[in-house]
């Protein structure tokens, strides 16, 4: 048996690239065991994964945790948002899941916005103006391009729903993740019948929305996971809402997450509804709201530029003349799904290090441009920006965010915040606490604060100017 002070819980992060599992002491937040296993994602026009890989990766990650996982009293799954999982009558995938960064549904997104009242109506009804990342647009794409797959579908799930259902045998989701589908009305907190009818999706195919603090089910015994039968299963949630729980976020504290995607968000008491579509009006996982802006190109795009240049990712040099917009996968913020990367200002004396710094600048510019829209008008702008995600410990990322934001930047020492947030949710089932309060008790935001420096207005203006001037080119798809 473990030497934990309290009961053990398991938090899972099933992300784009891998599944990670943490066994956590619910009393102290100490991670007593961990495991990780990779997924594969298709390349080319789409971004797809076989959901069965996620289950296999979960099994492997939990087995790496050893006996500690068997001792756990509760488990929760945090997962990548927006992915469309279609299941047949036996619960098997009809086809690979369409992931959040698959932007083939851009035409369907534009059409749906127009057909159902325009951006303002969408924002008022669902909290968001759907772009090609949203699940509803992926379902419309599937109906148009693979009608046989739609006819074979007997259940529609999100990635975290799929894993939770395999644990419990029951189809459930939560308000945080379902708010990113485009078919959940944030005003009524229920599935939107008009939207579902318009896209031909029977609401009977959708999971039950479990409320915060409610038990989604218990672990059934028909599996090969190291859980005891009857282990409690929490609702789970989307990755950003899980990370917000993991940080114990209070309203008004801004977060910038640097991962495969980049995100900026903050908890709010006010239901968001941005008709420009820049801010997605997501719900959070404990009853409030999580206005969020997301970019498709973040750490992977910058790392790709470093690889092309033959440089280490930290080998940056100051630049004042070259601009690089690293939109290698199209882009969501700004809404340019057909765009590719763009380089401007190249000279004979431009160095590889300057090009690499320009890639960092271009990626961070997109995120900071949305930060003021994410925060409530009365938010304190002097509060440190919490920097999390895989890139948060990189010196080049830290200094770029610091220089372009002009804000103090805090880098929490806690790692795997999505999995920690899921663990806090699982712990809340056992203790009756709000999961964010659990995370605050665990002191997950402890870490160094980098003092504010003068904001680099010249670089921000230069990037904004290039982006504006190049808009017609960026709006033109490069796909043949």
Automatic annotation (TrEMBL):
Annotated site residues (Important for activity) in this chain:
13
Provide the species name.
Answer: Streptomyces guryensis
Q: Does the keyword Transmembrane helix apply?
A: no
Instruction: Please report the stretch or stretches of sequence annotated as the Carbohydrate kinase FGGY N-terminal domain.
Output: 9-246
The catalytic activity of this protein is classed by the Enzyme Commission as 2.7.1.17
Keyword annotations for this protein, in alphabetical order, are: ATP-binding, Carbohydrate metabolism, Kinase, Nucleotide-binding, Transferase, Xylose metabolism
MF (Gene Ontology): ATP binding; D-xylulokinase activity
- State the Gene3D superfamilies in the record: 3.30.420.40
In which family does this protein belong, per the annotation?
Belongs to the FGGY kinase family.
Residues covered by the Carbohydrate kinase FGGY C-terminal domain? 309-427
Protein's recorded name: Xylulose kinase
PROSITE patterns documented for this protein = FGGY_KINASES_1, FGGY_KINASES_2
């Amino acid at each position: 048996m473990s030497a934990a002070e309290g009961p053990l819980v398991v938090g899972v992060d099933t992300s784009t690239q891998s599944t990670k599992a943490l066994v956590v002491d619910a009393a102290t937040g100490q991670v007593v065991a961990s495991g990780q296993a990779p997924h594969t994602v298709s390349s080319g026009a789409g971004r797809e994964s076989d959901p069965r890989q996620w289950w296999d990766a979960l099994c492997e990650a939990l087995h790496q945790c050893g006996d500690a996982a068997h001792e756990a009293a509760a488990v929760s799954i945090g997962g990548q948002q927006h992915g469309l999982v279609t299941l047949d009558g036996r619960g098997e995938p009809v086809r690979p899941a369409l992931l959040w960064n698959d932007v083939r549904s851009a035409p369907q997104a534009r059409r749906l916005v127009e057909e159902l009242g325009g951006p303002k109506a969408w924002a008022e009804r669902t909290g968001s103006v759907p772009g090609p990342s949203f699940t509803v647009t992926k379902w419309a794409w599937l109906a148009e391009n693979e009608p046989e797959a739609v006819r074979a579908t007997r259940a529609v799930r999100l990635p975290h729903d799929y894993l939770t259902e395999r644990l419990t045998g029951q189809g459930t989701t939560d308000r945080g993740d379902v708010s990113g589908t485009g078919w959940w009305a944030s005003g009524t907190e229920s599935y939107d019948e008009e939207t579902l009818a318009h896209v031909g999706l029977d609401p009977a195919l959708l999971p039950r929305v479990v409320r915060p603090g409610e038990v989604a089910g218990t672990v059934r015994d028909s599996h090969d996971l190291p859980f005891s039968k009857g282990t409690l299963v929490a609702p789970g949630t989307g990755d950003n809402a899980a990370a917000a729980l993991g940080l114990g976020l209070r309203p008004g504290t801004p977060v910038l997450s640097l991962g495969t995607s980049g995100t900026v968000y903050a908890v709010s008491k006010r239901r968001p509804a941005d008709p420009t579509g820049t801010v997605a009006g997501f719900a959070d996982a404990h009853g409030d709201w999580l206005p969020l802006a997301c970019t498709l190109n973040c750490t992977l795009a910058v790392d790709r530029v470093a690889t092309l240049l033959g440089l280490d990712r930290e080998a940056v040099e100051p630049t004042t003349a070259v601009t690089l917009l690293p939109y290698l996968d199209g882009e969501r913020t700004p809404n340019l799904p057909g765009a590719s990367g763009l380089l401007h200002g190249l000279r004979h004396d431009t160095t590889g290090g300057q090009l690499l710094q320009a890639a960092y600048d271009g990626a961070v510019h997109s995120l900071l441009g949305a930060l003021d829209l994410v925060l409530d008008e009365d938010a304190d702008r002097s509060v440190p920006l919490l920097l999390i995600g895989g890139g948060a410990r990189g010196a080049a990322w830290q200094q770029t965010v610091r220089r372009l934001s002009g804000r103090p930047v805090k880098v929490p020492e806690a790692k795997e915040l999505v999995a920690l947030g899921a663990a806090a949710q699982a712990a809340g089932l056992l203790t009756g606490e709000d999961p964010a309060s659990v995370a605050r008790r665990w002191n997950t935001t402890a870490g160094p604060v980098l003092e504010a420096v003068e904001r680099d207005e010249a670089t921000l203006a230069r990037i904004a100017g290039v982006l504006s001037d190049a808009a017609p080119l960026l709006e033109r798809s490069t796909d043949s």
